[in-house]
Amino acid sequence: MTFKAYKSFNYWLPRISVMDRYIAMELIPPFIFGVGSFSSLGVAIGTGFDLVRQVAESGLGLGILFKVLLLRIPQFVAYALPMSTLLGTLMTYSRLSGDSELIALRSVGVSIYRIVVPAVLLSFLVTGTTFLFNEFVVPAANYEATATLDRALIQEQVALKGENIIYPEYGEKKLLNGTKKKYLKRLFYAAEFDGRQMNKLTILDWSKEGLNLIVTSESGQWNIKKNIWDLFNGTSYSIAPDSSYSKIARFERLEAELSRAPLDLVEKERNSDEMNLLQAIDYLKVIESSRDEKKILKIRVRIHEKIAFPFICVVFGLIGSTLGNRPQRTGKATSFGISLLVVVTYYALFIVCRVIGQVGIVPPLLAAWLPNVFGLVAGGWLLFRAAK
């Protein structure tokens, strides 16, 4: 690169002041310390004790134990990132305040609003990292950890089994006044899913005027090549408009062009922590036809939380840098304690908002973002008080 080209490239680089670079470099060590501390604590309390209990009670092998522990680490790292933002900003600004460096900055006209800018920018960076980590690493690791544990405890088939699978498929009718109305097009029922096929199926069909077809079969299996259901050993009853049977036919194998959704409904019955945003939206589409409002509300809240949760890093960054601006110096132990207190308060609010969102008291969007809104208001008020 020639000197002229380098000068041109350097011109477009963000111009970071000495103060910002200095504060940013001071923020990194306590942030990394927080990630390590909170992650270790989370893994030990959240997973380690339970796995040790299973080693004692179920004879779980040490190899499986360490594999599951490793697979659980990403989830707790994702939890630790916001908490470390709080701890890092609190410790850094407290150290700067204790050494009178903040007083020196304010004495030359730098406002407290300007001083906390590096912390807020770092928080946005951690927010993006948390979101990407939660999307591309955590769900896959959680799912693999659950599958590994299930296989070790010989519960793989149990995880894939299901009973009383009901899938109502809805269609739309155009009325004479031009409006559209939803109606029950088809009802799929299977007494059980054994991990390979549906058993004891009954299908009711209203796709034409009124109930026009009833199909029962001993079993049914999804045909991947043809994207249809293969039904085995059953009977189809065609219903005439006067509700009498117009035709009854026995079959050994029948190809039925039905939706794959009943199978998706069983296979995707997994914890929302094991799904990323797109998988959760896909799962919502499947369960929306079931009209199970409780389950639909629950997954809608979780979808909004997947977007809202990473932004808690910004809230914690603002609160931590503002609390650290107090005149007295705060030690590591005190900072850790204050961080835990703030985190516990936030998560208590987070759970309350989740519950009221899942029971329909507030819309899912509001339930997911309320903790962040409260946190931002609290952080803004603290900052305003500190600036006076």
TrEMBL record:
Q: Which UniProt keywords apply?
A: Cell membrane, Membrane, Transmembrane, Transmembrane helix
Gene Ontology biological-process annotations:
lipopolysaccharide transport
Span-the-membrane segments of this chain are 27-49, 69-91, 112-133, 307-324, 336-357, 363-384
Statement: the UniProt record of this protein carries the keyword Lipoprotein: no
| UniProt main location, coarse | membrane
Protein name per its UniProtKB record: Permease
Spell out the InterPro entries in the cross-references. Answer: LptG/LptF_permease
Q: Is this entry keyworded DNA damage?
A: no
Q: Where in the cell is it found?
A: Cell membrane
For membrane topology, the record states: Multi-pass membrane protein
Source taxonomy: Bacteria, Bacillati, Cyanobacteriota, Cyanophyceae, Synechococcales
What are its GO cellular component terms? ATP-binding cassette (ABC) transporter complex
